[in-house]
Structure formats: structure tokens, C-alpha cells
């Protein structure tokens, strides 16, 4: 579960979609299609997207670790 800026749950958040968005931003930056101000804005958006993905993966890793631990205890 990933939380938005207001702290509420985003039910339609998708890891794959967020990765696609970050990749699109990187492509635009690398292509030089953006003004410098937009580069910084888009870069900040990409960084936030990567942080969301990292949190998502950390949460899933914790779930997997817990399941493995449960299996080992049996």
C-alpha cells in the first residue's frame, strides 16, 4: 500500500505504471526536449516515483521474509 501526499491510500497505484512514468521522464530528459526548469521539475517527479517504488518493494520484501519465517517455524 502506497500513500499519497495527503497520507491517504492510493488504491489504483501500480508499480509497473510508476516505473513506466519514470522511464518516460528519463527519456525526455536524455533527449533534451525539456527546458531547464522542466528538467528539474521532472527529475524531482522521477525521484519521488522511485521512492514510492522502493517503499513498495521494501514492504513486499518484509511480507516475503515473514512468510518464509512462518514456514521455517512449522
Automatic annotation (TrEMBL):
Pfam families: Exonuc_VII_S. GO terms for molecular function: exodeoxyribonuclease VII activity. Its EC number is 3.1.11.6. It is an enzyme of class 3 (hydrolase). Keywords: Cytoplasm, Exonuclease, Hydrolase, Nuclease. GO terms for biological process: DNA catabolic process. Its main location: cytoplasm. GO terms for cellular component: cytosol; exodeoxyribonuclease VII complex. It comes from the Bacteria. It is found in: Cytoplasm. It catalyses: Exonucleolytic cleavage in either 5'- to 3'- or 3'- to 5'-direction to yield nucleoside 5'-phosphates. Belongs to the XseB family. PANTHER family: EXODEOXYRIBONUCLEASE 7 SMALL SUBUNIT. Heterooligomer composed of large and small subunits. NCBIfam families: xseB. Bidirectionally degrades single-stranded DNA into large acid-insoluble oligonucleotides, which are then degraded further into small acid-soluble oligonucleotides. This is Exodeoxyribonuclease 7 small subunit. It comes from Brunnivagina elsteri CCALA 953. The gene is xseB.
